[in-house]
Amino acid sequence: MSTIKNIFIEHGPAYLARYGERIPKGHKKVIRAIINCKTDVFGVCVYTCRDCGFTDYIPISCGNRHCPNCQYRKTRQWLDKQKQKCLPGPHFMITFTVPEQIRAFIRSHQKEVYSAMFAASSQALKKLAKDPRHIGGDLPGFYGVLHTWGRQMQFHPHIHFIVAGCAVSKKDMVCHPAKNNFYLPILPLGILYKAKFRELMQKAGLLDQIPSSAWEPAWNVNCQAIGDTDEHANKYLATYVFKVAVTDSRVKTDHQTVFVSYKKQKSNRTRTMQLVPFEFIRRFLQHVLPWGFMKIRYYGFMHPSCSLGLDKLRMLISLAFKIKVIINPCKPELLPEPLPEPICKRCGGTLVFQHVMAPQQVGASGLPAG
């Protein structure tokens, strides 16, 4: 059983009993989803073995995006889909953060502020990319993923953007490559990002709730080159896309204490912090996103509604970087791999899906154990 799931099973009900009135509905839903994941609470899939005819009943996962057991399949499916949209040329990962002084405010206004972070950072990227002193194209291409945690599960909201190293000019349909190996200067990006965020908070009527100390430090932006095609970029970010605040590989427990391993920035030495179960659950739940919030967003020529089309876009980028034009750059080995089929526990043969049984059917059927 998953270590994190076991912690929630052992201590989740007591956590709900103690803090129930103060816990948001979304957090309660996540607790129950993790506890009941891969049990018959969500129904079962019925399979039969192709070789021996054995019938197996496999519980359905909860599918909650905050459940550490349910992210592998989603990550694979997202990565396989991205492989079909390979773009040539250099790519960068640009990360936008917020200062510590504003984090408490953000926790109290998550939906509004997370959206403002996306809007302010994407607008800053577009404005500087359009400037002829930098790139000179009004149609850049990038997508972003929101993260809310640091290495010790603390609240640390930031956005990772994967950015193609060029921008298309809609006026003459020419692709302009970035003029350096860092895409755009990070100091002006940080200044623009902070200014646009402040403007959005003023429009939302929330500016007076932000401590003045939040505007004093520079708002840090980091840029890192990550490869010559977005194949490398997607692989780099794939583990981040559906990642939760902490995974089972980093967690151990003796039922009274939770041990979480982590590494400090710029250090390879593994450290361990000790938390009581309630504190572990609290830190985990503070990263639950608002209901319906989109944590991945696409912009410019990476947006699904972009009218350029993949083939034309690949041609424009290839011409800009003077590389061989490849209409379909996806290599055979990059094509989607089939997800592994379940194996028969009796003979090791392949299980073939038959149908789904709803939770109420499972309760009435008296399914055999195992």
Protein described:
- The chain has 370 residues and is an alpha+beta fold.
- It contains 10 helices and 12 strands.
- The protein has helices at residues 3-19, 25-36, 72-83, 103-108, 110-130, 186-203, 230-241, 277-285, 310-320, 359-365, and strands at 44-49, 55-59, 91-97, 139-149, 155-169, 174-177, 221-227, 251-253, 258-263, 270-275, 296-300, 351-357.
- Helix 1 (3-19) runs antiparallel to helix 2 and helix 3 (72-83) runs antiparallel to helix 7.
- The protein is globular.
Sheet/helix structural class: alpha+beta
First CA to last CA: what distance?
Answer: 15 Å
Query: Please, what is the oligomeric state?
Result: single chain
Number of helices: 10
Radius of gyration: 24 Å
pLDDT averaged residue by residue: 89
Query: Strand fraction band?
Result: 15-25%
Low-confidence stretches: none
The ordered string of helix (H) and strand (E) elements is HHEEHEHHEEEHEHEEEHEHEH
